[in-house]
Amino acid sequence: MDLTWPALTRHITETFRDWHHDLERITLEVTESALMEDPEGAMATLNRLRELGVTLSVDDFGTGYSSLSQLRKLPVQELKIDKSFVLKLDCEPQDQLIVRSTIDMAHGLGLKVVAEGIENLATWQLLRHWGCNLGQGFYLSRPVAPDDLPETARSLATRIGELTQPNPEYSE
Hints:
The protein is an alpha/beta fold. Helices cover 42% and strands 13% of the residues. It has helices at 8-15, 32-37, 39-52, 68-73, 93-108, 121-129, 149-157, 160-164; strands at residues 27-31, 55-61, 78-81, 112-115, 134-135. The chain has a five-stranded parallel sheet with strand order 1-2-3-4-5. Strand 2, helix 4 (68-73) and strand 3 (78-81) form a beta-alpha-beta unit. The termini are far apart.
């Protein structure tokens, strides 16, 4: 619904007026269904948001009805693979095919890829091996309250080695 709000771009500009960072640090997620409601209006809003410099991400990719021709026209920089394709990635060959193909396609379109629903190390290693840029899921971290974020970040730093080391099983 926000994509149809005429004042959205102005609201974001005013909200971040005193922020001392580039707006590309802000990622706004758009669902496929929001794009289908009013494609022309959504596209106009997305183009204005992109002109502001924010990063735009297509959320829950693969669960909606958008076409690949529509995806290539969107002014987005990121695609988020829905967790329904990731949750059993370590044991479902069809999900592996879908996710790996989606990563390759997204990279071919110049998009970063985020996988949602990473629940175990094996899934994270597969995704990294295939070139997935970022991940979300309980294996990496449970949701964190803003006040707890600094301590959580420090404790996660100790896991960085485990999360970023290549898995010899997937080395080429």
